[in-house]
Amino acid sequence: MRPIISKMDFSHSSLFGYIEDLQELTIIERPVRRSLKTPEEIERLTVDEELSDIERAIYLLSSGQDIQGTSVVANLPVLMRQNPAETLRRVLPKIREVLHVAGVEMQLTAAVSFLTVLQEESVSIHTYSHSFLHIILQNLEHRDAGVSNAWLETLLAVIEALPKETVRHEILNPLVSKAQLSQTLQSRLVSCKIMGKVANKFEAHIVKREVLPLVKSLCQDVEYEVRACMCRQLEHVARGTGTELTKTVVLPELVELARDEGSSVRLAAFETLVNLLDMFDADDRSQTVLPLVKSFCEKSFKTDESILVSLSFHLGKLCNGLYGIFTPEQHLRFLEFYKKLSTLGLQQENGHNDNQLHLQTLEQEKKYISVRKNCAYNFPAMIVFVDPKNFHLELYSIFFCLCHDPEVPVRYTMAISFFEVAKLLNSDVYTIHKELVTLLQDESLEVLDALVGHLPEILELMTNRGENNGSESKLLSIPDLIPALTTAEQRAATSLKWRTHEKLLQKYACLPHIISSDQIYYRFLHRMLTIVLTNNVLPVQKAAARTLCVYLRYNRKQEQRHEVIQKLIEQLGQGKSYWNRLRFLDTCEFIMELFSKSFFCKYFFLPVLELTHDPVANVRMKLCCLLPKVKSTLKIPTDKHLLQQLELCIRKLLCQEKDKDVLTIVKRTVLELDRMEISVDAFQKRFYENDLLDQEKERQERLLLEMEQLEKEKQKNEGRSTNINDKMFEKKRK
Q1: Residue 650 CA to chain centroid, in angstroms?
Q2: In Å, what is the CA distance from 410 to each residue of 233, 416, 706?
Q3: Distance, CA of 178 to CA of 362 (rounded, Å)
Q4: 3-class DSSP state of 680
Q5: Nearest CA among 302, 213, 226 for reference residue 257
Q6: What contacts 591, CB < 8 A, 6 or more positions away?
Q7: Beta-carbon contacts of residue 262 (< 8 Å; ≥ 6 apart)
Q8: Using DSSP, how many helices (H) and how many strands (E) does the chain show?
Q9: How confident is the model at residue 731, as a pLDDT?
Q10: Which controlled-vocabulary keywords does the entry list (predicted)?
Q11: Residue 463 needs a FRET pair 20 to 30 A away by CA distance; which of 281, 480, 559, 638 works?
Q12: Angle in degrees, CA 344, 348, 349, rounded to 5
């Protein structure tokens, strides 16, 4: 790029530079001109509009360009729905013909379209197998691996739906020749995957006679890719043959493959063994599987690091699957192996100094991070393995290390599994309080987001032990919880990840069940109001508004409640910004959801109606949409005067509203209000459930007032016997 010239320079050299720039622009423009279609090309791409869909498809497949043919193939499911008979008779043979010379894009599109036709059941399975199956089988060994895999996926789905006899004659019998060593590598790999699917289709005696010989042949193939592929299909073969044949045929093959010279084959054998643990009896596990697993574990650090990541991922399943046959010594050995994996890459080997240590390659670092991440994933399973009672002695140090791991993926996985760990520990959950605080204060928002998903349930488990002592004493069991929660919210607020902030605010609605009313009032409630007033993200504002209403709902001091209500009305409902007034209406919706009808009518009904005079049309529009809900809070005859106020506001809007959009909504709202029935003070059958719910809300609101009165009396009577008051207070609190 040329530097920007501040003043026009008309020297010869400068003008020559400008000419060069213009020439460059001309060169850039040339390809655009060349890409335009000539009249002949446009003529060739034009199709007669009067042709039917079938005729157009045949025309485009016969004389159109590749992109047009691909479009027809993509539209095949639609043609099959509209006119299946004609599509099968005329269009499908043409597609079959075109696919012989088609490019990769059309082949991939055809594989997807054929699968869609099967899934939509446009034709019977008999018709499908007669018309489509041969085309799928013909393209199965395409020279492009991506195309071949696409057709294979379609075939595997088709096999599930096909009758047994069709599978046997059309697919299984040809496999005998396709699986021979004389066939291509691609053909033998395809045969392996088909074997895994076919094995579940037939009875055990047919599988033994016709499938297992081919399986054994492919397990002993000269190419390691084929052996590895067939090894991964042995799980499906075993499920199809049953435990007896698994013991006599499949297990010996797995044992042999586990000692294969190819690392990918050994890895496939190990993973298949783990997945089939439930099919082996105790003797097979102790005499065959366990020695193999021990061998894998020993070699993983010394000679075969390729299996390390897979071993760490399956270790929890492995330990619990073999739990019944472990001796105490073996149990301890596997636990120590897990501990070693959990800190892999974080510790230096003994006997080496810094100068002797080689720098770890980037690839090795990634592998070690994956291993520790897998250990974090398996942590709940390892708690079951050692028994939750032994957690502090056996696993706490590892839990601490994983929660403080330098890599985010490891801590993220621990945050996801934290709730499972807390459930398993049950009454011993207090041992991981510090780690909860640590993860709440984690520098990565991904970790915080993962933890927050189950935060209410985690906090409930954490504080359950103090449930009988009143909510004020619950906090004592989690030191530093409140600072950690406030720090987490502030970090989310200052980030650009507003969804994490929204999620966190929604989950913080659980706090009234965890900490005291005063602590919520002084540390969280005003923060929620600030977010509603100042944040620029609507979902975040709404989440904060709802959580604020929950805090108000459970606040135990009338003075504090009145103060918050006043602020909501003055700073939101009567705020200078129309945006704040819109949020006031959102907040009123949450009030109607969480509080009783009488509460809303007492404090918010008239402030809401005042917004009918709002100067901003959007506010009046939102208010009109809210009016049916507002009317549903009224009870006759108690709220007759409020009903009159509502009707007066509606009449004013009808007469005075000048904005046509608002007026349209007003008229629609009037019709809806006219159709509404207002509940009366006495119970009515059609409002029975709603009235019961509202009555329960009123009862809880009265209890809060009574509890406040009891607290005041309790403070006055300090030093005197207050056992009766204490019992009454505790009863009401519950």
Answers
A1: 45
A2: 31, 10, 49
A3: 42
A4: strand
A5: 226
A6: 549, 599, 600, 604
A7: 224, 227, 228
A8: 47, 2
A9: 57
A10: Coiled coil, Cytoplasm, Phosphoprotein, Repeat
A11: 559
A12: 95
Write out pLDDT tens, residues 403-417. 999 999 999 999 999
Q: What is the pLDDT, as a whole number, of residue 682?
A: 55
DSSP labels for 611-627? GGG-SSHHHHHHHHHHH
What is residue 410's predicted lDDT score, i.e. its pLDDT? 97
- Residue 17: phi and psi, rounded to 5, are -65, -40
The 10 Å CB-count burial string (b at 16+, else e) for 382-409 is bbebbebeebeebbeebbebbbebebbb
pLDDT the model gives residue 17: 54
Angstrom distances, CA of residue 593 to CA of 311, 505, 588, 632: 51, 18, 9, 12
Cα dist from 130 to 127, 162, 623, whole Å: 5, 11, 63
Q: With beta carbons less than 8 A apart as the criterion, state whether 600 and 592 touch.
A: yes
pLDDT (0 to 100) of residue 351? 44
Residue 6 DSSP SS3: coil
Residue 679 pairs in a beta bridge with 635
**Residue among 580, 559, 562 nearest 571 (CA):** 580
Q: In the numeric block, which tokens belong to residue 437?
A: 């605080």
Residue 611 · residue 620 · CB < 8 Å: yes
Helices 445-452 and 455-463: angle between axes, nearest 10 degrees: 70
- CA–CA dist 607, 612 (Å, integer): 10
Three-state secondary-structure class, residue 102: coil
Kindly state the greatest CA–CA separation across the chain. Answer: 105
In angstroms, how far is CA 97 from the centroid of its own chain?
43
Cα–Cα nearest to 447, from 486, 492, 480: 492
Residue 674, CA distances (Å) to 307, 631, 650 in order: 72, 11, 11
pLDDT at 29: 45
C-alpha 519/C-alpha 511 separation (Å) is 10
Low-confidence stretches of the chain (pLDDT beneath 50): 1-13, 15-16, 19, 22, 25-34, 349-357, 466-476, 719, 721-722
DSSP for residue 679: E
Alpha helices in 132-171 (DSSP H): 133-138, 145-161, 164-166
468 vs 731: CA distance, rounded Å: 11
Dig out the tokens for 386 from the structure.
């050692």
The span from the CA of 667 to the CA of 487, in Å, is 48
Distances in Å between the Cα of 407 and the Cα atoms of 129, 373, 382, 416 are 52, 9, 21, 15
DSSP codes, 17-55: HHHHHHHHHHHHHHHHHHTSPPHHHHHHH---TTS-HHH
418 vs 315: CA distance, rounded Å = 19
Residues in the chain: 734
Reading the block at residue 682, the tokens are 């006495």
The secondary structure element, H or E, covering residue 91 is: none
Structure tokens at 189: 């790999």
Predicted local confidence at residue 32, as pLDDT: 46
C-alpha distances (whole Å) from 46 to each of 36, 42, 64, 68, 171 are: 15, 6, 9, 11, 42
**Residues 520-545, buried b or exposed e (16+ Cβ, 10 A)?**
bbeebbebbbebbbebeeeebbbbbb
In which residue are the tokens 């900490």 written?
515
726 CB-near residues (< 8 Å, 6+ apart): 714
Cα distances from 402 to residues 104, 370, 378, in angstroms, run 46, 12, 11
For residue 234 the two structure tokens come to: 């042995």
Indicate the angle between helix axes 379-386 and 328-342, nearest 10 degrees.
Answer: 150
Q: Return the SS3 of 636.
A: strand
Amino acid at 721: S
Contact 514, 460 (CB under 8 A): yes
DSSP state for residue 635 in the 8-state scheme: E
Spatial CA neighbour of 639 closest among 599, 691, 675: 599
